[in-house]
């Protein structure tokens, strides 16, 4: 025992010596730390060539007590990463070897503006306000090596290049919307996003707190909102739950305020309210046993606009929520409210008649106006999605333009404030960041980094004298497919940084190529915060595939959604930054396994893509005497979740179809209760027109050809197939089989998937469905 203790002691000493020698051996400045890397790009920046290096005597001097938290924020970073403990003093003047932080209200800059000068003697930051000073301090952190964000000590020269900066934002509203309803983030996870927002000068946090799928904020007067409304039973039978207590909400608001971020709550009305109706069914036009929705999309049951009790409920909720959020804005949703129930509800119709409203759209406007009045009592301004234009805009409403820019342009032309967040501008950052066949499943759409970067919140159609109504822009992170906190990160970053520059930096100074260069530095900063940001993966043009069949030879070409180095191996080892760099298409004449990934300047790598390349002879066709058109089906009823459950199917009903589209007749809109659940298997032959290599794609659970399972989607969300695969086929009949299982998987009902099998010949750009003319049994 004693010897063991001694042994451990010696080991500790050795480790301490190694650590010590590492500490004294300073890292050479990595490439990503060279140059000026500030995001968002400052309005004016001149390099003076006179740098300043922090040492143990460097002080932080603040001009007033109110600036001390900013100095403490900076000192905290320096303490953790640089092992420096700068003294914080209050004083009027910078001294030598100091970082001075002051406020000068006379600066001819906007409220959030600041100046920063660094030189031999130190750094002088002057904010137009404390908010501006905070941003000056954030820019200073970005002038230091990216390792300043490290929570652990790093041995480096803490050098600040000499610069003269005059900076202010182009827009006052630079926002990030976080949906914590479709999935949920803990308070600590939310704070992690707030940290990154603050680094890049994002100043509005729009917190989407209620939905069809969940109610996430404690309301003391209505405890069932969270008791019932914050938990749902998913399609696989598991429970998904989470909500914030009012104390937790206050904590997030406080944490954000310390970082000069205003939190804007969103309480959805009159639609997207099923979780509230599950808690209090009497708030619906037609009360029944509602459950929080477990499939994505839009629920038809909404708050009844005819019941006075609904307006009392909304007033009560606003009365509890408004005081938690000191900011001036309150978001009431207003989007995607189906009018189906209101059209037949006697109370809604009575409300329409009694208020002289024209139709249900004016009833929606009536609803929003009443919410506006309730908010005004709390001194809050209403924000709503652009549907609040329907039936007439509430007098003081600010419009969040999402379906395009048209709503925003219309509202600004009516002299209303506008926040731009159009899907078409790439600002729905939960959309795909690259090729859907390699990216994690997403709701659809496209949000490339460059599109977000190049977004200009001022639409061409908007006359110059209305420009001031555009307060700014926001990226939205909807969370339907964000099953984990890592996936939230993956979609948020680096896109949020692109929005930061699109809303802060002067239009004529923006430069995507230079932004990508600075992003290498910013990414290392994000690494220090444990952010799982998106790294573009190697993609094959026209849709990627992990299995490529060929007969003679094949060339594989790769691209990435933004310029980034790709590395690969052919010996099944995992590629490292030192592996062979991809520079030109890779030719295969024999079978092999290619592993390829992207690598950032800081050494961080994308996931590995493994591509099996297989040399094949044409798989022989079959003789099918008496083949007749169509496919044979067998259908089993039961609550199956996916193919493995079909072993329990006891009775199968045999039938026939002429095309894949006929496999399933049931339609599903709101819930699985609407359908008798089933699984369908279709078998037959596909008639291949010519010898060739064919690639297949499907969202069904399985697709077989020549008795080989070519596509296995079990375990996947059956949307945007990520399992496309190919086979060399002789002209003629080939046996096929496909299996579809009716279930809700990851919030996606397979009832909404196409049942088609798509096919294309190798080299063709587009897939086409296998047509009825190609199917036989
Ligand atoms: C929205 O995406 N429904 C605002
Ligand atoms: Zn009603």
What's the structural blueprint in terms of helices and strands?
Blueprint: H1 2-24, E1 44-47, E2 52-53, E3 59-62, H2 68-82, E4 88-90, E5 98-103, E6 114-119, E7 122-127, H3 130-143, E8 159-160, E9 163-167, E10 173-179, H4 187-199, E11 204-208, H5 224-227, E12 231-233, E13 239-241, H6 246-258, E14 262-269, H7 274-279, H8 308-321, E15 329-333, H9 340-344, H10 346-354, H11 360-376, E16 381-385, E17 398-401, H12 406-413, E18 418-420, H13 449-454, E19 470-477, H14 485-492, H15 495-504, H16 512-528, E20 547-550, E21 554-556, E22 565-569, E23 580-581, E24 586-588, E25 592-599, E26 609-615, E27 631-637, E28 653-657, E29 678-688, E30 692-698, E31 702-705, E32 708-712, E33 725-729, E34 732-741, E35 744-745, E36 748-749, E37 757-761, E38 768-769, E39 775-776
Parallel strand pairs: 3-4, 3-5, 5-7, 10-11, 10-19, 11-14, 14-15, 15-16, 16-17, 17-18, 18-19, 20-26
Antiparallel strand pairs: 1-9, 2-8, 6-7, 6-9, 12-13, 21-24, 22-23, 22-25, 25-26, 27-28, 27-29, 29-34, 29-39, 30-33, 30-37, 31-32, 31-34, 35-36, 37-38
Helix pairs in contact: 4-6, 8-11
This protein binds acetamide and zinc ion.
């Amino acid at each position: 025992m004693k010897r063991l203790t001694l042994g451990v002691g010696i080991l500790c000493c050795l480790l301490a010596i190694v650590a010590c020698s590492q500490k004294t051996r300073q890292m050479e400045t990595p490439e990503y730390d060279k140059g000026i890397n500030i995001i968002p790009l400052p309005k004016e920046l001149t390099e003076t060539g006179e740098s300043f290096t922090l040492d143990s005597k460097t002080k932080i001097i603040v001009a007033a007590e109110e600036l001390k938290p900013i100095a403490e924020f900076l000192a905290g970073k320096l303490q953790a990463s640089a092992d420096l403990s700068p003294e914080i003093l209050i004083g009027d003047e910078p001294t030598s070897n100091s970082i001075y932080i002051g406020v000068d209200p006379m600066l001819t800059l906007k409220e959030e503006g600041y100046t920063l000068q660094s030189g031999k003697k130190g750094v002088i930051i002057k904010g137009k306000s404390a908010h501006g000073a905070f941003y000056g301090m954030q820019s200073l952190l970005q002038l230091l090596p990216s390792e300043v964000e490290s929570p652990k000590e790093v041995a480096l020269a803490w050098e600040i290049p000499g610069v003269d900066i005059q900076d202010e934002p182009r827009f006052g509203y630079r926002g990030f919307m976080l949906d914590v309803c479709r999935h949920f983030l803990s308070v600590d996870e939310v704070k992690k996003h707030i940290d990154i927002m603050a680094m890049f000068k994002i100043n509005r946090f729009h917190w989407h707190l209620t939905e069809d799928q969940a109610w996430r904020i404690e309301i003391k007067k209505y405890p069932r909102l969270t008791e019932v409304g914050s938990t749902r039973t998913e399609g696989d039978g598991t429970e998904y739950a989470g909500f914030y207590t009012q104390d937790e909400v206050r904590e997030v608001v406080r944490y954000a305020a310390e970082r000069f971020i205003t939190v804007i709550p969103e309480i959805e009305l009159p639609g997207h309210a099923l979780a509230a109706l599950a808690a209090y069914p009497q708030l619906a036009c037609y009360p029944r046993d509602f459950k929080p929705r477990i499939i994505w999309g839009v629920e038809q049951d909404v708050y009844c606009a005819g019941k006075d009790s609904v307006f009392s409920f909304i007033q009560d909720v606003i009365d509890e929520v408004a005081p938690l959020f000191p900011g001036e804005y309150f978001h009431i949703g207003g989007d995607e409210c189906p009018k189906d129930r209101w059209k037949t509800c006697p109370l809604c119709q009575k409300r329409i008649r009694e208020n002289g409203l024209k139709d249900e759209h004016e009833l929606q406007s009536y609803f929003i106006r009443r919410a506006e009045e309730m908010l005004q009592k709390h001194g809050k301004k209403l924000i709503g999605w652009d549907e609040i234009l329907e039936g007439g805009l509430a007098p003081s409403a600010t419009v969040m333009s999402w379906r395009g820019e048209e709503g925003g342009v219309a509202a600004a032309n009516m002299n209303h404030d506008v926040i731009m967040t159009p899907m078409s501008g790439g600002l729905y950052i939960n959309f795909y960041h690259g090729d859907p066949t390699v990216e994690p499943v997403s709701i659809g759409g496209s949000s490339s980094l460059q599109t977000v970067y190049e977004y200009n919140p001022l639409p061409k159609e908007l006359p110059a004298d209305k420009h001031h109504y555009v307060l700014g822009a926001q990226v939205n992170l909807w969370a339907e497919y964000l099953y984990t906190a890592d996936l939230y990160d993956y979609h948020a970053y680096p896109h949020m940084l692109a929005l930061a520059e699109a809303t802060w930096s002067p239009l004529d100074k923006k430069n995507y190529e230079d932004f990508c260069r600075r992003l290498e530095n910013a990414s290392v900063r994000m690494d220090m915060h444990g952010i799982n940001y998106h790294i573009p993966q190697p993609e094959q043009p026209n849709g990627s595939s992990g299995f490529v069949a060929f007969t003679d030879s094949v060339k594989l070409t790769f691209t990435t959604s933004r310029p980034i180095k790709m590395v690969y191996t052919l010996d099944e080892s995992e590629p490292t930054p030192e592996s062979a760099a991809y520079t030109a298409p890779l030719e295969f004449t024999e079978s092999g396994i290619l592993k390829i990934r992207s690598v950032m300047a800081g050494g961080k790598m994308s996931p590995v893509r493994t591509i099996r390349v297989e040399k094949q002879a044409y798989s022989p066709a079959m003789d099918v005497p008496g083949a007749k058109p169509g496919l044979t089906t067998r259908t089993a009823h039961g609550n199956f979740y996916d193919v493995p459950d079909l072993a329990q199917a006891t009775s199968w009903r045999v039938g026939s179809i002429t095309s894949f589209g006929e496999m399933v007749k049931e339609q599903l809109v709101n819930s699985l209760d609407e359908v008798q659940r089933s699984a369908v298997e279709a078998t037959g032959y596909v008639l291949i027109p010519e010898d060739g290599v064919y690639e297949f794609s499907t969202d069904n659970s399985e697709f077989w050809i020549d008795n080989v399972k070519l596509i296995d989607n079990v375990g996947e969300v059956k949307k945007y197939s990520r399992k496309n695969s190919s086979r060399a086929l002789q002209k003629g009949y080939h046996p096929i089989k496909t299996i579809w299982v009716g279930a809700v998987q990851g919030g996606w009902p397979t009832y909404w998937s196409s049942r088609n099998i798509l096919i294309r010949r190798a080299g063709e750009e587009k897939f086409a469905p296998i047509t009825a003319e190609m199917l036989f049994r």
